[in-house]
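Researcher: I'm preparing a figure for a lab meeting and need a structural model of a single chain. I don't have an experimental structure, so a prediction will have to do for now. The sequence is pasted below. Please return the structure as tokens so I can convert it later.
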Amino acid sequence: MTLLNEILTYNEKFVEEKQYEAYTTTKFPNKRMVILTCMDTRLVELLPKAMNLKNGDVKIVKNAGASVNHPFGSAMRSIFIALYELGAEEVLVIGHHDCGMSKVNSHDTIQKMKQRGISDQTLDTLRFSGIDTEKWLAGFNSVEENVKNSVEMIRNHPLMDKSVPVHGLVINPETGKLDLITEGYHS
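Model: Understood. Here is the structure written out token by token.
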């Protein structure tokens, strides 16, 4: 049985037994906040538990490194939709210690792409189109600095309501301890 078939088989039973009823909520976050965090597998259940969050409490946007890399990318768009359309009133950027993005070497990642069939021609086409794949795939050295940079990108965005608090935190993926990097109430 493939992983997809396993998921679909389980899902059929989940729906048939109406297990979804325990998770019924609205699209509006009860705690009126949006979180940008990392896609790290250790945070799937730990982050909400460490913050006393349940289904329906917050909007969660996930990407590699909890990073805002472009002012008009999907992370910013998601944050703005949460704020302007779905009732969020605060933003939390939550990175984590031992983040895989702190170890990413874009040159090595590009080599792995080539090993899996991405051609030099494709990479050249991107480069000639103005896309710097080395920069786009680059990691970071400090999770704290990455959180600060993402918070500043959000706070200083021309479409950002300056009255919205934007906070930066780092979570320990082993213990769930949150460290405050920057608090947005007085910024």
